[in-house]
Amino acid sequence: MSTRESDQNGVAALMERILYEVKRVVVGQDHFLERVLVAVLAQGHLLVEGVPGLAKTLTVKTLAATMRGSFKRIQFTPDLVPADLVGTRIYNQKSGEFTTSLGPVFANLLLADEINRAPAKVQSALLEVMQERQVTIAGETHKVPNPFLVLATQNPVETEGTYPLPEAQVDRFMMKVLVGYPSEEEECAIVERVTGPAITIAAMASTEELAMLQRDCRGAYVDPSLVQYAVRLVAATRDPERYGIEDVAPYITWGASPRASIHLVEGARALAFLRGRSYVLPQDLSDLVPDVLRHRLVLSYEALADELTADELIERITARLPAPEKPLESHGRPGAR
């Protein structure tokens, strides 16, 4: 076994131990958990849509404990100001000097609860930190810890008192994950765990180890044909007629940006790592397409009138643009690079 294969097996085993430890507390939500780990490895951010009470906070808090990382939660409200997030300068009357008080964004895992309940100025402050991974307070630059993951939630039920996220800001999120209700069996297990003895979470990895895994993840092999496939999928949302999908064109006002192509490839690398491989397969890309694209499509009035969702349109596009067949034959042969 080569050194790289041995390292890759170690990465997969470590992520499996982290996942096992989280699932001792969190019941079900396998898709959500996998996407959170993908975002951690790919250094992206998640936008999560789901009703209250579906273990979104518990998942992120437990994950932070398994990684010896810090966890902060911000409840977004209409009266929030940017200083409540990033921090501010405080005047000390006794010493006559100003000191910097850093805000809750300085954490490894940050939960922005109901992000659409805060004004645009607060949303912009958070999204600037997500992009730059630093804040500037009174001319001083402060970097957020590494790794840094923002998980922002939206409630799809109650829309009173909310501020819709501008499309340019939503595009900063790597994926949008939809979290649904648990099954009856899963809900029974949830009640038993919550009402039973408290579960102690063991730390499986340090933040330094996680940063090393993130660097290794960027070295995963992506065949050029898969990169082209990701670009074609994203381009098809902008110009469906060019790819022979004329029936989709009336339903999409604006398609996904090139950032979607980047996030597709980066996410596929992370997903391949989680699955114990150092190279990306077409299935890795295909599995992530709905999560990466659904929040980036601006639907037309025709789509709303016909009650079509972004997921249904994405399904039509992927059905007409099949993934390349056997793109990794040379990479998979013994002795190949």
From TrEMBL:
Tell me which Gene Ontology terms the entry assigns under biological process: regulation of DNA-templated transcription
* Gene3D superfamilies reported for this sequence: Magnesium chelatase subunit I, C-Terminal domain, P-loop containing nucleotide triphosphate hydrolases
Domain spans labelled Sigma-54 factor interaction: 8-155
Provide an example Pfam family for this protein. AAA_3
What keywords does the record list, in alphabetical order?
Answer: ATP-binding, Nucleotide-binding
An example of a GO molecular function for this protein is: ATP hydrolysis activity
Does the keyword field hold ATP-binding? yes
Family of this protein: Belongs to the MoxR family.
- Give the matching PANTHER family: MAGNESIUM-CHELATASE SUBUNIT CHLD, MOXR FAMILY PROTEIN
Q: What is this protein called?
A: MoxR-like ATPase
Organism of origin: Azoarcus indigens
